[in-house]
Specification:
The complex is a heterodimer. Helix content of chain A is 38%, strand content 20%. By secondary structure, chain A is an alpha/beta fold. By secondary structure, chain B is mostly helical. Chain B has 11 helices and no strands. The longest helix of chain B has 40 residues, at 63-102. The radius of gyration of chain B is 26 Å and the shape is flat. Classes of the chains: A alpha/beta, B mainly alpha.
């Protein structure tokens, strides 16, 4: 079914895009290569943001959003190229090898000073990933109980300020390079719980971590500084206004919400941490 | 020349040869000074002319980010110092034990010798990061209860395994550098093999390899940062956290400065020891 939808989408793309390209679009002369939109993602790109580490298929939330934005900006699907970058490459000074970079970058005022972000395309809840044995040992979705756990997180994420400011665990959290290392530490029993964005946590608990469980979530509405994902661009990139216009259009038409509903699992079953 | 002044005679007028040599020395000093100043000026003046200099400056040498993150980095550095402090003695002892294994001469102890060779070959051949991953995640994964699965314990073990292999090789080279006649002399005095090693060979061998081992410990001080791969938030990891929060590389520069503040004096001291040793030998 999903395949059908995306194929249909891919087939209709060229027709609409060709129309748009004709009338001197916003992005003319602003992309890295004229007539091509170069989008960066992570290496590897993770489920459910990109399916099977293959963004060019347009499957997965971020891949689908990327092609939708490209379409609004007037690029045909075959005129979208993908490159891979790490976080560090994305923020290094100097010329970038992408028009925009899409790998769950949280928009923060500190980061805004160094790079440009588009309008947000997703607002994420944070969720607590743990294992069934920790839950069986009596951990529950209250801050009191969470404080006593041994925490881990990926060092490059905005989970760390939330961990330190909201949960304030009793022992210092352990930090890791990537999801795989956090999972290894959970499975080795070195940490009880880890803080992730909700879609990632749902995936990890269901598929990757043996006996994984979601203890609870911090809904975005409750947070003072909700975790909003934006497209990262070089500081002062003139393409920003085109990307923002495309995103506004997608948000207002409800297309963005539809893509979210299609790719990001329902999270209503996860208890809310007060 | 040192001897003439040491006798207390007033320094005689320079010979023509000495005057010529002094002139050559002054000339080369002048050239060295000019070329150093030239290079430094070129760097200071030319680098900022590069079109991307401003971007590099905000990304790597950002005063505001530096001020905001430096205290946190210093705090995290304490953990590096602690890990180093408990690893170093363990490494020294293990390294010595392995070196002695490799030097076991009795035929019955051949398995020990074999073990020593295999140990140094394996652990000198493996990247430190790999050993840290395998031991830091692998051993606790066997199902050890807390606190015995702590990354500090197993990370330290990984460092000890790798570094003791290097230290063992250095100590062995020290043992080999002691002339055979020393052992023969000890034997003729009636010392056992064990006592020969304990009282004759090792005291000389260890003294010979102190500078080389200093270098290893300076390297260890930096490699402690690799423990961050398995969880501990030491200075390098803390800098990485700041880097991603501020989208700025300045915290790494701060961390580098803290490392240098420790390693440069240590390196100078190692050089001083090495020069002193060379002077004593010649």
């Amino acid at each position: 079914m999903r395949l059908l939808v995306t194929t249909a989408l891919a087939l209709t793309l060229p027709a609409t895009a060709a129309l748009a390209m004709g009338e001197g679009t916003c992005s003319a002369g602003k992309t890295l290569t004229e007539g091509t939109l170069t989008i960066a993602t992570g290496n590897p790109a993770y489920y459910p943001w990109v399916m099977n580490d293959a963004p060019e298929n347009g499957e997965g939330f971020e891949a689908a959003v990327a092609y939708a934005i490209a379409e609004k900006m007037g690029f045909e699907a075959e005129n979208v190229t993908w490159v891979r970058t790490s976080f560090d490459e994305a923020i290094q000074p100097g010329a970038k090898n992408f028009d925009f970079n899409m790998q769950q970058y949280s928009i923060t005022p500190e980061r805004e000073e160094m790079v440009d972000f588009s309008l947000p395309y997703y607002t994420s809840a944070m969720a607590v990933l743990t294992t069934q044995s920790v839950v069986d040992a009596g951990a529950d979705a209250t801050l009191e109980s969470l404080k006593g756990l041994k925490w881990g997180a990926v060092a490059t994420t905005t989970a760390i300020p939330i961990l330190n400011d909201v949960i304030q665990p009793e022992s210092d959290p352990l930090l890791y390079n990537d999801n795989a290392d956090v999972n290894a530490a959970i499975m080795a029993g070195q940490i009880d719980a880890a803080l992730y964005d909700l879609p990632t946590a749902l995936y990890l608990s269901a598929v990757v971590v043996e006996g994984g469980a979601l203890l609870g979530q911090f809904p975005a509405e409750q947070s003072e500084r909700p975790d909003q994902f934006g497209l990262l661009m070089e500081e002062g990139n003139p393409l920003k206004e085109c990307v923002d216009a495309a995103l506004t259009e997608l948000t207002e038409s409800g297309e963005l919400a539809a893509i979210e509903a299609q790719w990001l699992a329902e999270a209503t079953g996860v208890p809310v941490i007060e | 020349m040192a001897e003439t002044t040491a006798t207390g005679r007033p320094a005689p007028a320079l010979t023509r040869r000495e005057a010529y040599e002094a002139g050559v020395r002054r000339r080369s000093n002048r050239i060295a000074l000019i070329s150093t100043v030239g290079v430094v000026l070129a760097i200071v003046l030319l680098v900022p002319l590069a079109p991307g200099w401003e971007a590099v400056q905000t990304a790597f040498f950002n005063g505001r980010v530096f001020a905001a993150t430096f205290p946190g980095l210093l705090d995290a550095f304490l953990l590096n110092v602690m890990i180093f402090a408990w690893s170093a003695p363990l490494i020294a002892l293990t390294g010595l034990a392995i070196a002695l294994c490799r030097d076991a001469r009795a035929p019955a102890l051949f398995p020990l010798r074999l073990f020593g060779i295999a140990y140094t070959d394996v652990f000198r051949g493996l990247p430190v990061v790999l050993v840290i991953y395998i031991i830091g995640f692998g051993v606790p994964g066997l199902g050890l209860p807390r606190p015995w699965n702590s990354p500090y314990i197993w990370g330290t073990l990984a460092l000890v395994l790798v570094y003791s292999a290097y230290v063992a090789e250095v100590i062995r080279s020290g043992i080999d550098s002691i002339h055979k006649s020393q052992r023969s002399a000890a034997a003729s005095l009636g010392l056992s093999d064990r006592d020969t090693m304990r009282y004759v060979v090792l005291p000389q061998a260890i003294r010979n390899v102190v500078p080389a081992n200093m270098n290893l410990f300076i390297a260890l001080q930096k490699d402690v940062a690799l423990l961050s791969f398995i969880g501990p938030v030491e200075i390098f990891r803390q800098a990485g956290v700041y880097k991603s929060l501020y989208a700025n590389f300045t915290p790494y520069v701060g961390a580098a400065l803290i490392f240098l503040a420790l390693t440069i004096p240590a390196t100078r001291y190692a050089d001083y020891l090495m020069n002193k040793q060379n002077r004593e030998r010649s």
